[in-house]
## 1
Amino acid sequence: MSWRVPLADVDFDQEEYEAVEAVLKSRWLTMGAVTQQFEQAFSEFSGIEHCIAVSNCTAGLHLALVALGIGAGDEVIVPSLSFVATANTVRYAGAKPVFADIIGEEDLTISPDSIKARITPKTKAIMVMHYGGYACDMTQILEIAKENHLSIVEDAAHAAGSSLDSKSLGGWGEVGCFSFFPNKNMTTAEGGMVTTNDANLAHKIRLLRSHAMTSITWDRYQGHAWSYDVVGLGYNYRIDEIRSALGITQLKKLKLNNQKRRSLTNYYWQALNQMVPEVRTPFCRHSGESSNHILPIILPVGANRPEIMERMKEQGIQTSIHYPPIHLFSYYRQLDSTVALEITEDLAKRELTLPLFPGLENTDVKSVVRALADSL
Ligand SMILES: *Cc1c(COP(=O)(O)O)cnc(C)c1O
């Protein structure tokens, strides 16, 4: 299928090709100087002290939970309106994901009141997800966490370049995790970044990323070590130099590309408001600095979403949904079929995601909104 307007697109040019080629020519292929440089660059960009590059965001979330000591018998409060990895990683750690509802039509992030209602003596952490790069209500969530002695893990997969009160997302909780999957705001093909301002957690995460070995191949190549000990049960969640090289070039473009997303988002909101006022535009009054990762809309009650998506497809426009609620997937229903989340279930049925990427033009936005108006 060749889309006239795809949902997302990468921004690659000569710089990325050359960066990859340089790594291949250097003959050092994984976790070396280029990865260190990528981590350093991400730390400078985000203002978060410790950045640990990993094979993907899912691996990063798993490491975050393990480093926080979360395991069997523990509960972690998570949103259900997220990508399945948010809850899966809690299961990897051996703990139980407890699903919370979202705020509402204006704001699709986890509801602080719903979090409060789900705290039990077993709760150890809250995993928030900054939907579309729009910050969760971190002021309230931090307060709840403090009162109840809970850790916060931020699934910041959407949030590269996002901030709230001038402070980067991914740096509000104990640990943040970013994704560099191809449809995210910057990509390394597969890849992720774990961020923390806690030196002790950073040390643990670095160890766990590579089998909990006290020295890595790179240290030994550098002549810094000749053997190693294994001090825990670690994983192979490393990133390689090819991906890190892509990450360095992509990070340089992130600010400008996010500005383009912001301006396209404003244009969308204006056009939607004028041409299809019955459609709701979540986050249009949001106060943080968003990465504007995706463009979610809420269709009116009774609208036939599959038919609308089909009609837009006929015009070459790709749309998507974010997300089928996690608690309704077969796997999670088998674990607990009693979970009911009123707002999540209502809005997830009516949510539609429109195309958004830096290379999109205002004229494309106009034609997407016109096609939506016709389809409705
Ligand atoms: C993309 C995404 C992930 C997973 O990222 P990977 O890098 O593919 O592991 C996790 N959570 C959310 C919300 C995502 O959008």
## 2
Amino acid sequence: MNFSEIKNDEQQYMMHTYGRFQTAVVSGKGATATDSEGKQYIDFTSGIGVNCLGYCDEGWVKAVSSQAATVQHISNLYYSPLQTELSKKLCELTGMDKVFLCNSGAEANECAIKIARKYSFDKYGKGRQKILTLVNSFHGRTVTTLAATGQKVFHNYFFPFTEGFDYVAANNVKDLESKLGDDVCAVFIELVQGEGGVMPLSQEFVDAAAKLCSEKDVLLMIDEVQTGVSRTGTFYCYEQYGISPDVITSAKGLGGGVPIGACICNEKLSGVMTPSSHGTTFGGNPIACAAAIEVLSRVTTAEFLEEVNKKGDYFREKLASMPNVSDIRGKGMMIGIVTEKDNAKEIAAKCVEKGLLILTAKNLLRLLPPLTITYEEIDKGLSLLSEAMAE
Ligand SMILES: *Cc1c(COP(=O)(O)O)cnc(C)c1O
């Protein structure tokens, strides 16, 4: 099928939930994607932070295909050695205590929200159910995670939204203090706001949140869906802030390209979720677990993390001398670019024409390249970006 046939069928048969770039990606290798017309692209997106090992990494393909040929799904009514191996790894890597496996970021966040409310209910009874999130946060597209998302544009049409959320201005300690009343059970934050414009939180704000939470037995929950799995230069981003969260949620890069999410809690919360309080049909699917086990075995070594940081620095250094760049934000290989001409959307569309896939977030350009991208691919992509920026 050629592009116009694919596009026609998309318009005829699919709900119009996405504004798409004008290309249909059909295959890929490393950080290079190929579309339906045979045109190649350097990929600075990883499918929004998902393909952390790039397209069709050899070890990842082997892990997924050999698991598909062994057992593709069992129900959560039975034990699974892949689920236990993955959960054990996640606990060992984080020092956390228990894992719930699901299929997406929104689901991992739903689990975190349920844990926070049940922990508080079990210990303090009713009336302490509010969860504070941040203005400009993004936590997912279910009705409850939309309510958790601190952006008014998402609070439309689907009323009534889940109650019990309030929004604190990022990096504003006074606002946090004033909203952290006796009805609050959790503070739930991204450490680098992704969709909100690649905005890192200040150390001061995160320290204040951690201190207030621990004083009031309010859970500190970190949405690592975008920042996690070595994206920001440590396995999870919270490590860089020196805090000990009560809950971490993870998804996107965790499966390296297959749907998997995880909600990870500390020892204090290990008994909160009890039989039948939560569940999922697909969560912890063996193929997804095999993929995640392979991802973790690769992205958590000291050498790999050092490379992520080196490549992040390399990107920053090159971007700093590029036309139309007024600011560069983010951590590791999660990079936001503020443009002088405030024309990120236009640049992103131009890049696609030139053979570079690139993201936006609010009015910024956003790069989430595969963590395994080569320097050759980085140079190639940056030279296309530079051309688009100069126009
Ligand atoms: C992408 C994202 C989500 C939602 O994940 P889905 O897998 O799309 O449900 C939640 N939180 C953050 C920070 C994200 O970047």
## 3
Amino acid sequence: MSDSTGNSADGKRQFGFTTTILHNDRSKPIEHGSLHKPIHTSVAFGYSDARQLASVFQGKEPGFRYGRQGNPTVAALEDKLTRMEDGVSSICFGTGMGAIGAVFQALLRAGDHVVTSRFLFGNTNSLWHTVAGQGVAVDFVDATAVANVAAALTPATRLVFVETIANPRTQVADLAGIGQLCRERGILFVVDNTMTSPYLFRPKAVGAGLVVNALTKSIAGHGIALGGALTDTGEYDWARYPHIADNYKRNPPAQWGMAQIRAKGLRDFGASLGPEAAHHIAVGAETLALRMQRACSNALALARMLAADRRVAAVHYPGLPSHPQHGFASALFRAHGFLLSFELADGIDCFDYLNRLQVAIAASNLGDTRTLVIPVAHTIFFEMGAERRASMGIADSLIRVSVGIEDEADLLDDFRLALQQ
Ligand SMILES: *Cc1c(COP(=O)(O)O)cnc(C)c1O
């Protein structure tokens, strides 16, 4: 993947990923020459000409109406995310789940069908079960092979939804195969890019029409703000989507999907991102590439060390040649990610092990600058019960590690010393 975003701050020169993020706010005039888009806290936006207010409401000219539907600080972040994903437009939400929920609320109706992965972020899995109770049929398939997705498609299938790297077992979806299948069938392909981030992978490259990013995770990186986003990559032809309401068809077809999502998903349901959080996320995003490089190289070193230790029963990391989708991951991603999980050998208690760690913190976030660990079966996957855990390959001793940017030697020492009882 090239480093260029395909866009430049001045509209002429092509800049790399980080240069583009750092200078994107200044591509539009900012008051006082401010280097950052300021935090605009106003909920309402006044117009000296009432006709202009009407024209903004009617979508005839750009402008802000009310904070729930858009805000200048949030818009600056949306613009940055669009450049990061090399897309056409983006919409921010108060959380990653708000963004995924908006896909359902804006695009699906009773009688529709969705194909998704059996290996999903737990809350997304729960959301699709909620949706299934509201008249949308949902099939959960092993998305590491496109044949399973193809076999599940029906004439009512409106979209296919997958994640890049699944948490906690790190299965990698057959992204290129599914993208090709969706393109052939004219089905919207939605990819949750949270575990890779647009620095490691752009789902547009495999034909995804919509990209989800939980901004809370590595895009912000600091763990001090929640946020989510959808980006339209321009790859999907909205003229083929059956449920676009007539009032959003006044714009060119390329804008139909996002116009409906902003109105139906964001305005009507109100999971809006606040300007303070947008600012925190934008500042964090400036160092995304640097943090990802460091976290991914730490993760690879840690995975290799654990895999070589007989006190560790199994290590799941796409960067290891033994990983079943090592090939997919190596072909598509710039590096193999910051997430790994491992199982301790019999006789080592996972709680005692975690309590011996001095650098890594027992906590439930991901993509933080700090290394975070969690005993999966006893926390995030506790509610589903032992039987479902077993069917998903979640061992009782499985520890998920979201690798941070600490000094590599400190991290390796921490996980190795804790193995010595
Ligand atoms: C965390 C996460 C989400 C949800 O994001 P929130 O901001 O916590 O709502 C969605 N998808 C994936 C893959 C995640 O890791």
## 4
Amino acid sequence: MVDLKGQYQKIKFEIDEAVLNCIESAQFIQGPQVKLFENELAAYLGAQQVIACANGTDALQIALMALGLQPGDEVIVPTFTYVATAEVIGLLKLTPVMVDVDPDTFNVTADIIEKAITTRTKAIVPVHLFGQCADMEPIMALAKKHGLWVIEDNAQAIGADYTFASGEKKKAGTIGHIGTTSFFPAKNLGCYGDGGAIMTNDDDLAKKIRMVANHGQSKKYYHDVLGVNSRLDSIQAAILSVKLPHLNSYCAARQAVAEAYDAAFRDLPGVTTPVREPKSTHVFHQYTLKVPAEKRAGIIAYLSENGVPSMIYYPVPLYKQEAFKPFWGERADLPVTEQLCQTVMSLPIHTEMDEALLQHIAQAFKNALKIELQSPRYSRH
Ligand SMILES: *Cc1c(COP(=O)(O)O)cnc(C)c1O
């Protein structure tokens, strides 16, 4: 699905030098590389503050902890997302209120969120799924009206731009009160291990976030609140400083692949190519198609036999996962998420894809669809 080795080869000299310098300095924890990268990322995003941490899941948890929410407080979260987004809410004994998403963009909307607001609602966690922003302006207006916090889960859309009605543009992750991201290797800005970061324009929140991420201490050995230990290694920060200047070209490479796929799949019967949110650019963490539910397994099997990987993000709605049963109970299904879990599939997309590979994958997908339309391999049950 990705080509991390090919990407590394192109920047090997700089990366190797940065890693070796870091090892030689022996400042493995909280070395100057971490602060430097935080500042560089803040400048790139136009965020007041960036706080690095150990991974994108921690980033979400720390953000929620910094808001001082109380057990039982409700946090609205899309159910069509990676587990981490909702997991941390439950882990903190807050109540994840899982909502459906828009069938075209796969993202939550203000209209969907509004219906789920109760007197116990304290926060919203929109996810910028697959690489494009949820429509944030109405979400922020709704949050303001109801006095709610907004944490953007920006693990998949770092580098995307959102345009407000006024024409003002902001980077994904800098629109809500807090934004979070992940530097997991396969993410659009990936390090060579685990990493994450938290963004905010609120200096008070930034202080709390730093404190929570560092054992709740504001001064060494003085602990004001219960915190966690969540740090970005100096080596990972050094790697990210090398990669950040390439992020825009990485986004452009992914966009070019997406456009070529779009063109190849434009008129295929039963296939829906990714619909763009008009107010956001799309940085294509994933290229996700919708195909007929009864054909999907056959298409994936054909692709696999022809050496083309594909993935289903995500096969099961979060509320159907055993871990979320206590929060969901016997409530009715969310129809859009149910439908998406049966129809979506993602094709390889990355920064190192050449024309030949792209055409090979596109042709294999077209062949798979044709064969499935003629004689489906799996019948529906
Ligand atoms: C990857 C991801 C996370 C978690 O990031 P980790 O660094 O793996 O902990 C959270 N939310 C979403 C939407 C993600 O894609």
